[in-house]
Amino acid sequence: MNKVVKALIAGIAVVCLSACSPMSKEAYLERFDEFVSEVSDNYKTYDSKAWAKQSEKYNKFLDEWYSKFKDEFTLKDEISIKANQAKWYYYRNLDDATSTVKQLLDAVDIKGMKQKVQYYIDNNMLDDLQKFYNDAQKAGKDAQVAAEEILNELNVKIEDLQK
After folding, report:
1. CA-closest candidate to residue 83, choices 43, 141, 125
2. For labelling, which of 7, 37, 91, 138 has a CA lying 20 to 30 Å from the CA of 45?
3. What is the DSSP string of 109-135?
């Protein structure tokens, strides 16, 4: 009976793991978008344990699941994946950037500059970083549109470049 229970548990684990894995390129792209959106919505609430869990999920997207579909991705898909990677790193390292700036200020406080920079961190820095991020995202989209226009003028299809 003990062996039957163990076999049943192992079977359930296999089914659960396969159910978690995206079954198509489209599902992978959609789930990666959803994952990054979840991180962007909740990053302020994550502690080190939650970040470790999110990092584990992120690594599955980049290693295990990406490799399943890498031969199917179009140039547009790859750009979307890179954009999600950039968003992930932005949110993942935001606290580290703030912490690093604070440590630097503790080490060197020139004429009360620490208070001014601390005020900036507390009041404007996240907005400025978000604006920078939005500008970078817009620039990426503009670059994509420009590349597509050039390829259209040259009468070259993106799909032909990926063969």
Report:
1. 141
2. 138
3. --TTHHHHHHHHIIIIIHHHHHHHHHH
Cβ atoms of 57 and 88 closer than 8 Å: no
22 residue type, one letter: P
pLDDT of residue 52 exceeding 70, the answer is yes
pLDDT tens digits for 15-48? Answer: 444 446 788 999 999 999 999 999 999 988 999 8
Q: Which residues of 77-109 are buried (b: 16+ CB within 10 A; e: fewer)?
A: bebbbebbeebbebbbebeeeeeeeeeebeeee
Q: Is the CB of residue 130 less than 8 Å from the CB of residue 40?
A: no
- Give the position of tokens 């609430």: 45
The residue-averaged pLDDT of 100-112 equals 60
